[in-house]
Amino acid sequence: MSGKYTSVPYGYEPPAASRKGTLTFYDSFEHVTDEQLERAAATVDTRSFIQLVLYPLHESTFKRMSKDSIQAYYKREDRLHDWRREHPTSRIRVEGLEGKRKKYTPVDSALRHITAEYPAPHFLYLTIEMANMFASFDSFKDWIKELRLIIDGSSEYLHPMLEQNRHRWEWAE
Which branch of life, at top level (predicted)? Predict the structure, then answer.
């Protein structure tokens, strides 16, 4: 406790929080543009989320998901920190779990960490490629019940599990 005592009038009830939930941008951030980051930050303001959490994937995690090459984790993380510093008034946090672990982190572990660490309701902001990858995992059926998705981009191909759960996700504006 802080040690500071305050007195309030009898019957006082604190005002209800106007902002709720967490928007987590889960990606490798290898090919994510500044425009996509700006759209995610704008979504936080328009939808009244408490904060935007940028969750960069470690190289070993991304290599298990895809065969593409990727920059070192610290370079991508530094880019995100630089972008965050350009927006001092926004509520943006760069999650460093994968940097601490320095190894493969399954999607389930990452999502369990996010849901335990940050206030609900939880929304994942994904690029179309990452959304299709996420939908291909077996655990997608369980996570789609707990999370809502906001998908950035447009594609003629959507994973069948995304099509089946269309009511749990929407396109980014």
Answer: Bacteria
Report residue 146 CA to chain centroid gap.
14
* In-domain check, residue 52: yes
Kindly state whether residue 90 falls inside one of the protein's structural domains.
yes
Structure tokens at 85: 């510093």
In this structure, what DSSP letter does residue 53 have? E
Task: Count other Cβ atoms within 10 Å, centred on residue 13.
Answer: 6
Q: Which residues are registered as beta bridge partners of 124?
A: 24, 149
Whether the pTM exceeds 0.90: the reply is no
pLDDT (tens digit per residue) in 126-149: 999 889 989 988 889 999 999 999
**What distance in Å separates the CA atoms of residue 21 and residue 47, rounded to the nearest whole number?**
9
Domain that holds residue 166: 22-171
For residue 51, what are the CA distances in angstroms to 13, 18, 119, 144? 24, 12, 9, 21
CATH of the domain at 161: 3.40.50.620
Q: Which long-range contacts (CB under 8 A, 24 or more apart) does 5-10 make?
A: none
